[in-house]
Amino acid sequence: MKRFITRWCALGLIVCATAFASPAFAQVGGRTPLQATMHVTSASQGELRGVVEDEKGQPVQGAVVSALGTTTLFALAGADGHFVFRNLALGPYLLRVHLQGYTSPRPRLIQVTSTQRSDYVLSLTRAESDAATPPVLAAGLGGAASTPEPAEHDHDERAWRLRHAKRSILRDAEDAVVAELSDESSFEDSFKNVGRAVGHSARLASSLFGDLPLTGQINLLTTSAFERPQDLFALDASVPRAVAYVSLVVPRQDGQWSMRGTVTQGDLSSWVLSGAYRRAAETTHAYEAGVSYSTQRYLGGNTEALLAMADGGRNMGVMYAYDNWAVLPRIRVGYGAQYARYGYLEEASLFSPRLSVTVQPRDAMRVRVLVSHREDAPGAREFMPSSTGLWLPPERTFSQISRDGFRPERIDHYEVSAEHEWPAVIVGVRAFRQEVGDQVVTLFGLAVADVPKSLGHYYVGSAGAFSAEGWGVSVSRALFEGIRASLDYSEATTQWLDRSRDVTMLQTAAPSVLRGDERIRDLAASFDGVVGQSGTRVFVLYKVNSAFARTRDAVSASSSLANGRFNVQVNQSLPFMRFANGSWEMLAAVSNLFTDEIFDGSVYDEPLVMHPPKRILGGVTVRF
Q1: Does the structural domain 28-126 have CATH classification 3.60.15.10?
Q2: Is the pLDDT of residue 363 over 80?
Q3: β pairing state of 255-264 and 518-531
Q4: Higher pLDDT, 399 or 161
Q5: 573 with 92: CB under 8 angstroms?
Q6: pLDDT of 422 strictly over 70
């Protein structure tokens, strides 16, 4: 171990020395401060800039500008009114501006490309005087302290009570709504009063939300799974499930609040709800904290799933907090942890801390050292949000293959990485070491104990403990207008240290997941961008690995390419369905990639997923 640490320290010094000796070719924009590595599988180089002006053409300082697209970003207009978004994913973005005391213009839909450098002018109009707006008084809403009573009126007890009733928030000097109608009141007059009251309250509500710089998106989706395309039309095909997803973001001058929720119904009903706060990356402490809760309940007829969920459901709760501290202008220290609690684990609480140091010796280069300890529960992928795609609620059930109880996977990860950026190319290198205990195995397509195989149910187990050392290199390049491609290659040498108690069952059901000491080679290729001027955004990822587990009827190892993993997503903007405050998109995606963790996950997390089914997803997205 001492020799290993000495060798790594020497490698870090060599990388740092090379970094300081390298000339600066281009300026690197701000990246996500909490990213654990500089993995650039799908790096993008779009940029969006502009200026905020008032109706007289003067710059407006402090306006909040939001760009809503594949991600949601915010910026504050400076003293000269200028704002800029760097390193945006290519595609359409809805550009909005908001400032208290000004009337916001209609949002603008803008296509971000790799070569775009246009400046956009956003015009704010100073709000009119509030003299015509009824002030809020202690007794309710109204423009006068009292309402003059008519000269002639009834003197019975009921009329007196109606006249002296306490005023509600819907009553003002112009109209009044009473709960009981007098004998002389006509239905038409009463209907007009109610209409005026409802209209007034609607105007009040719209003014409240109009002053709130709220952005978000709503997804109405349908998802299903299949092995072969013809299975989609078979009678025993997987039943499609409806998914609703809502994301809301409120920007502040010092950061942003966000809330996400997704839900599905059926024999497998589940939902996820989360909230988070992220401080602006330009501050000394760019921290992020959040909490989420997920639950899954099964009401179907799969006996394996019912036995695995004794109480009919599963749940998971997560709390996390991370900080990225700018110790010096070119040195940042990232630290934080995640605490998760799984209701189906005997050891329910899992703790995952992380520490990193990033040095930027040149404007176009970064060097990072990362140390992390990560604890994952079997089946955690069902409850955790995706890092590359849509966040779906738990949509599959799982059970332990050996009935010996779920055991969490523990990963100690050490990494040194460097990244250099040129105007059109980004190159990254890294070296890493891992110590993994109870490596999770995921098995699809098994028929166990007279239970037929199901695309909506899988088995998990533990392969044992191992150590790994490896390296990787990644290249990302802008091919042509709007399209960027990347390649990521890595090699790792593994040494198995111990086998788990599940080895007997795994040897019978899936012997290919029991690996020996070996060299793992992994190659991932992707491209991402907007095709022409059609507003069609395409993302394609294809991954091959020499250690992919295969079923008994799989052909020889020479078929690795055909047995690769992929993820294809297409977003089509619908210009004819734009409305005042947002835009519509159609979404179609198909994938058989089970894990999309590209940071500090185990080198075997995806290879030891056997025969994952293909998942198809489609629907509409409304951004506002």
Answers
A1: no
A2: yes
A3: unpaired
A4: 399
A5: yes
A6: yes
Question: CA end-to-end span of the chain, whole Å?
Answer: 54
Q: Which CATH number does 215-623 carry?
A: 2.40.170
Cα atoms in the 13 Å half-sphere on the side-chain side of 599: 18
Residue 68 in contact with residue 74, Cβ under 8 Å?
Answer: no
Residue 529 burial (10 A CB sphere; 0-12, 13-18, 19+): buried
Q: Are 488 and 39 contacting, i.e. CB atoms less than 8 angstroms apart?
A: yes
Bridge partners for 399 per DSSP: 459
Closest by Cα among 47, 81, 80 to 64: 81
pLDDT tens for 119-140 read 788 888 887 654 444 444 433 3
Q: Measuring CA to CA, how many Å separate 542 from each of 62, 198, 215, 385, 563?
A: 43, 55, 32, 21, 11
What whole-number distance in Å separates Cα of residue 352 and Cα of residue 333?
Answer: 17
Return the CA Rg of the chain: 29
**Between 44 and 458, residue with greater pLDDT:** 458
What lies within 8 Å, CB to CB, of 46 at 6+ separation is: 87, 88, 89, 90, 91, 112, 113, 114, 116
> What average pLDDT does this structure show over 473-478?
91
Tens of pLDDT, residues 60-85: 888 888 887 766 777 888 888 888 88
Domain boundaries, the chain: 28-126, 165-210, 215-623
Whole-angstrom distance, CA of residue 265 vs CA of residue 280: 37
pLDDT of the residue at 338: 95
Answer for the pair 481, 115: CB distance below 8 angstroms, yes or no.
yes
Which of the four pLDDT bands, split at 50, 70 and 90, describes residue 251?
confident
Partners of residue 53 on adjacent β-strands: 59, 123
Contact 551, 525 (CB under 8 A): no
How far apart CA 96 and CA 215 sit, in angstroms, is 9
In the predicted structure, residue 154 carries a pLDDT above the cut 60: no
This prediction has a pTM of 0.70
More confident residue, 301 or 369: 369
Task: Report the candidate in 291, 302, 281 with the shortest Cα–Cα distance to residue 261.
Answer: 291
Label residues 391-424 b or e (16+ Cβ within 10 Å = b): bbbbbbbbbbbbeeebbbbbbebbbbbbbbbeee
